[in-house]
Amino acid sequence: MSNRLLGKVAIISGGGGAMGGAQARLFSSEGAAVCVADNRIEKAEEISAEIIDSGGKAFATNLDVRSADEWASTISKTESKLGSVSLLCNNAGANFRVGFEEQTEDQFRLIMEV
């Protein structure tokens, strides 16, 4: 790759998922240091380990995107470990394997909150 993101620091919310994981890997391959943030910490740790094993710089953190406190903690940890945040990619999402008409009100609210 061309190192277009060399020296940049990225936070990827939903970084443990397919889309977020792909972005984290791509940004790392372009030279960025990456915070892989997800509420499924095991998935985030897997992606982070892949990046590190490939020679990149990354760490994983737990993040519920609905929590301002967790966002503040994620930003603080990222700046402490990697430097000033340059990029933010929001990939977190929620869905349920039911049709819209079958969704409960709580399911709908969760989707909208995330």
Automatic annotation (TrEMBL):
GO MF, one annotated term: oxidoreductase activity
Gene3D superfamilies membership: NAD(P)-binding Rossmann-like Domain (3.40.50.720)
CDD domains registered for this protein in UniProt: SDR_c (cd05233)
Keywords: Oxidoreductase
InterPro entries hit by this protein: NAD(P)-bd_dom_sf, SDR_fam
UniProt record similarity statement: Belongs to the short-chain dehydrogenases/reductases (SDR) family.
Protein name: Uncharacterized protein
Organism: marine metagenome
